[in-house]
Every structure is written in structure tokens, then in C-alpha cells.
Amino acid sequence: MEKILSYIESNHERYLAELKELIAIPSVSSQTERKPEMRRTAEWLRNYMTKIGLQNAQILETEGHPVVYADWLSATGKPTILVYGHYDVESEDPVSEWKSPPYEATERDGNLYGRELRMTKGKYLSI
User: Fold this and answer.
1) How far apart are CA 94 and CA 45, in angstroms?
2) What is the pLDDT of residues 67-87, one digit of tens each?
3) pLDDT (tens digit, 9 = 90+) per residue, 15-70?
4) What's the rounded Cα separation, in Å, for the pair 112 and 19?
5) Which 3 state secondary structure label does DSSP give 38?
6) How many CB atoms lie within 10 A of CB 1?
7) Residue 12 contacts by C-beta under 8 Å, 6 or more apart in sequence?
């Protein structure tokens, strides 16, 4: 466990940069004019999944927005874990209610704010 925690800590800045990059994409699925941003987010996620070593990363078309899929099936005899998540976000309206720009990650009091997400340094991502 010490090795894992050390790796996470030594890559903390990179993880923050990657998260900030994702947060900057305004992927509001309810706004048809932002359909290209939904596609851009799907492509970002597919590329990121490939970068971190997942296999078969692909974008699957649907009647609505695309679904991103990847797997890593190289742990023979081990349980399967499914991770499901949304990559769309709510509209930023009304912008006047935000303490900082919604698509620009802002650090305040040791937390990272953007797209309704908060990440506390040294802790896992929480909503």
C-alpha cells in the first residue's frame, strides 16, 4: 500500500492537470449546441483510458450521445469490476451563482472546484 500511496503523491500534479483539462470541456448534454463538446469529452476519455493502460477503448454510438467503453481483462481468475460514470454535466446557468468559472478548475482552501466537482488534496474525488 505504501508504494501505491507514494506513486499517487509523486504524480499528484499530473493528476491535477489532467482533471483540470477534463473540467474545462463544457459537456452539457441537455444543450444541442454543445453536442460537439460531448463528442470532444468522449474522445478525451477514450484517449485517457488508452493512456492509462486500459484496452479496447472505444466510442460507441447511440441515438443520443456516445458511450465510452474500455476494459482490462488480464487478471485471470479475479473478480470483474464495472465502473460506470457520466461525463456530461449540468448547465452552468445561472453563472452568477458560481463562486468561480464553472469550466475552469479553481483551487480554494485546499479543494479543487469546477464542474460541480471537488477534490481535496490527499483525498479521493468526491461530489
Assistant:
1) 27
2) 999 999 999 999 988 888 888
3) 999 999 998 999 999 999 999 999 999 999 999 999 999 999 999 999 999 999 99
4) 10
5) helix
6) 5
7) 121
pTM across the whole model? 0.82
- 112 phi and psi angles, rounded to 5 deg: -110, 120
pLDDT band at 120 (very low <50, low <70, confident <90, very high): low
Contact (Cβ atoms closer than 8 angstroms) between residue 92 and residue 31: no
| Residue 44: its H or E element | helix 35-51
Q: How far is the C-alpha of 107 from the C-alpha of 12, rounded, in Å?
A: 14
For the packed helices 35-51 and 12-23, what is the interaxial angle rounded to 10 degrees?
Answer: 160
From the centroid of its chain, how far is CA 104? Answer: 14
Q: What is the DSSP string of 78-122?
A: SPP-------------SGGG-SS-TTS-EEETTEEEETTEEEETT
* Residue 73 DSSP code: -
Q: 8 CB contacts (<8 Å, ≥6 apart)?
A: 15
